[in-house]
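Now for one protein, fold included:
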Amino acid sequence: MSNPFTGSSRPAPGTPNLPTPPTGWPIGSYGTYEEAQRAVDHLADSDFPVQEVTIVGVDLMLVERVTGRLTWGRVLGGGAASGAWFGLFVGLIMGMFTPQGSWVAPVLAGLGAGIVFGLVFAAVGYASTRGRRDFSSASQLVAGRYDVLTQPKHAEQGRDLLAKLAMRPSNP
């Protein structure tokens, strides 16, 4: 188990790697992860002991961005394409173990079988939703702000370095 007073985040051998809250004092708070990353990069460039730094996302939210409408054509096309890639892979593996010169038949058989199975699985999956989710999307976990923490013995130095960074004009 890790000890919050030693500054070590490694668990003792044989203990499970359980989630633990971050430790340290805040030395900066940023609206985007890119800004927090830039701050830590500045600390590293200033010979700050960055191994003692943690970036913490606060006020987490799951953002789902809708990327398009699902139609039978898109579903079946996607199923056929993913099935084709998997079938091609299996066919190439089978082709490696066939006598020399006859690798084309296993590759074509794998490709064809992959397309058929991809179509079937995509159709069954889409039909089972019964129109309740006729869109595609991408999900992302984001934070409302990103705090940069460090151990108390380095907090004052870190705040001073980040204050100098804040006074510099940002790069375009």
Summary: The longest helix spans residues 104-129. The chain has a mean pLDDT of 87.
